[in-house]
Specification:
By secondary structure, the chain is of the alpha/beta class. The chain has helices spanning about 10-20, 55-65, 80-85, 85-105, 140-160, 190-195, 225-240, 260-270, 295-300, 310-320; strands at about 1-5, 25-30, 45, 70, 110-115, 160-165, 170, 205, 220, 220-225, 245-250, 255, 275-280, 285-290. The chain folds into two domains: about 1-170 and about 225-250, Rossmann fold (3-Layer(aba) Sandwich), CATH 3.40.50.720; about 190-220 and about 255-290 and about 305-325, UDP-galactose 4-epimerase, domain 1.
């Protein structure tokens, strides 16, 4: 199957295209390279364009005849979304709606959407399942939820079949260190912790140590990026087989605090990794941990690398061999 991956040159997207190819599919990428890296997807067909560019979609479809889309392209920083909500509504919602309408005109009616655990907001249960009420606390989560809801109407009105995958915290790197996480600016915990071990920063900042958690720091569910990639491949294959869509969590069902992740990194790297507490980031809930029962039952998906220390170790291999990322 020929599959278009928007945002395919990004961190998660570059792992997905390798997962697709490993399963015998033919991935094609559409990425404006604002956040992605062409080097991460060398050897894959790349269309450099914005997802709202109708002409680029039409040219790409004439050339590649893709049959399905995995939609990854988005702005994804919670703090930035609180400061610039309009940017997130334009890029994550308006542009995605324009893309969906273009796909209908092209006759493409299978879509896997990169959503987020941020749709749940501040949850009231330990292991969040998909029936938990959605009440985002930031524009990032709000715009992702809005497009999820739009997809349900697109299915009803136009037959656009879709699956929304609600990520918890993507982390780690591809085995062998070929690709990994490289953002500018970097806002994710594990790369920032490892930057201290590499001597690039003096200390890591803990964004809030007064949350209602055992050690006062946020608890998150970390999922290896290759496990996320596998879930996307299973989802696109399920749509191709005529299975019903819906929303699915992608998590490990294990929660780790910021302090626990820092300690895992100390053990992996052998570096003391000094840490200092700073103010909370707006929009950060205290705890986000998934129930993965629905996707496990439907698609037999479960994380192959659920241990946070192993996730950190895979990221460490990437960062220590490419301390400047794709700029090296």
């Amino acid at each position: 199957m020929v599959v278009m991956v928007t945002g395919g040159a990004g961190y998660i997207g570059s792992h997905i295209v390798r997962g697709l190819r490993a399963r015998g599919h033919a991935p094609v990428l559409l990425d404006d390279l604002r956040h992605g890296h062409a080097e991460a997807v060398r050897g894959f067909p790349l269309v450099q364009a914005d997802i709202a560019d109708d002409g680029a979609w039409e040219r790409a479809h004439r050339e590649h005849r893709f049959e399905a889309v995995i939609h990854m392209a988005a702005d994804c920083q919670v703090g930035e979304s609180m400061q610039h909500p309009g940017k997130y509504y334009r890029n994550n919602l308006a542009a995605s709606l324009a893309m969906a309408e273009t796909l209908l005109r092209l006759g493409v009616r299978r879509l896997v959407f990169s959503s987020t655990a941020a749709v749940y907001g501040d949850p009231h249960q330990d292991a969040i399942d998909e029936d938990h009420p959605c009440a985002p606390t930031n524009p990032y989560g709000e715009t992702k939820l809005a497009f999820e809801r739009a997809l349900a109407w697109f299915r009803m009105a136009h037959g656009l079949e879709s699956i929304s995958l609600r990520y918890f915290n993507a982390a780690g790197a591809h085995p062998g260190g070929e690709i990994g996480e490289d953002h500018d600016p970097e806002t994710h915990l594990i790369p920032n912790v490892l930057a201290v071990a590499l001597g690039r920063n003096e200390r890591v900042t803990i964004h809030g140590d007064d949350f209602p958690t055992p050690d006062g720091t946020c608890i998150r569910d970390y999922v290896h990026v290759d496990d996320l990639a596998e879930a996307h491949v299973l989802a696109i294959e399920a749509l191709a087989a005529g299975e019903a869509g819906g929303a699915f969590n992608l998590g490990s069902e294990r929660g780790h605090s910021v302090r626990e992740v820092i300690e895992a990194a100390r053990q992996v790297t052998g570096h003391p990794i000094p840490a200092a507490a700073g103010p909370r980031r707006p929009g950060d809930p205290p705890r986000l941990v998934a129930s993965r029962r629905r996707i496990q039952d439907r698609f037999a998906w479960r994380p192959r690398t659920p241990d946070v220390r192993a996730i950190v170790a895979s990221a460490w291999e990437w960062h220590r061999h490419r301390p400047r990322g794709f700029r090296a």
